Amino acid sequence: MAGATRPGSRPVSPHLTIWRWHITMLSSILHRLSGIALYGAAIGFAFWLMAAAAGPETFAKVQTVLNAWYGQAALYLIVAASAYHLANGIRHLVFDTGAGLEPADADTSAWFAVLFAIAAPIGLWALVTFGA
Amino acid sequence: MSAPKNAMRTPLGKVRHHGAGKEGTGHFIATRATSVALALLLPWFIVTAALSLRTGYLGAIDFLTTPVNAVGVILLVAIGFYHMSLGMQEVVLDYIERPLSKALLLLLNAFVPLALGVGAVFAVLIVNFGV
User: Fold this and answer.
1) Among A110, B69, B111, B119, which lies 20 to 30 A Cα-Cα from B78?
2) Based on the structure, what is the number of domains in chain B?
3) Could you tell me which chain B residue has the CA closest to the CA of A130?
């Protein structure tokens, strides 16, 4: 709060360190992390498009980065972040209807989102490598 | 009226009318509406690009001059940049407390996605219609 000081006697929210890690907590944190990562990825995508418009020389520089191991690793992680943010985003759309909020259901759907994020880039790699 | 001793609201906050802004529904709905569009556009783009985008300059040009791809990429950029700006606004408001840092980051978050989004859409148009 702007300019407000907090007297020591004021209540604080339960401290992070006393929480046992659980999957719904992880799913919430990962949603923000993947969202922030995709923010960066979208900026990169805009530069990729502008490089294509700029011409072959500029595009070749971008292509060099994308072909390098760190470029390939970044693309792999971007697919994983996209898959996670998509699956967990759909989970949140379901939550918005009031459904799926029972702890057992929320745990199951959170696990599904995490597993989907692991499986999607592997599946896409298999699809590209072994043909469609 | 005296406040209970450990009320969450500070006296200063009361004076300055901090608390619920009585708005935000528009932000909530815009986040959800754009997310539904992106739930279709992003998987489409990733799968299509993985299967049909060849490496190199000519590969990119071929991909972006296919009309369906050009329209899809423009929609993805426009809606995606709007959605990510909404999301980052929420993150900044949640975690950045200092007024000046908060204001600067919110301005940056308003300008950068708009500038890069317009640049990216313009780039797709240049690729298709030449300079």
Assistant:
1) A110
2) 1
3) B51
Instruction: Measure CB to CB from residue A132 to each of B51, B122, B124 and give the nearest one.
Output: B51
Residue pair B92/B105 in contact (Cβ under 8 Å)? The answer is yes
- Within 8 A of B19 by CB-CB distance, chain A residues are none
List, for residues A11-62, the tens digit of each pLDDT value.
777 666 777 888 999 999 999 999 999 999 999 999 999 999 999 999 999 9
CATH number of A23-130: 1.20.1300.10
Chain B residues with CB under 8 Å of A52 CB are 57, 60-61, 64, 123, 127
Domain residues of chain A, as ranges? Answer: 23-130
Q: Which structural domain, as residue segments, surrounds residue B51?
A: 23-129
From the list B35, B46, B116, which residue is nearest A46 (CB)? B116
The answer as to whether B18 is a domain residue is no
Facing residue for B43 by CB, picked from A38, A60, A86: A86
pLDDT tens-place string over residues B29-58: 999 999 999 999 999 999 999 999 999 999
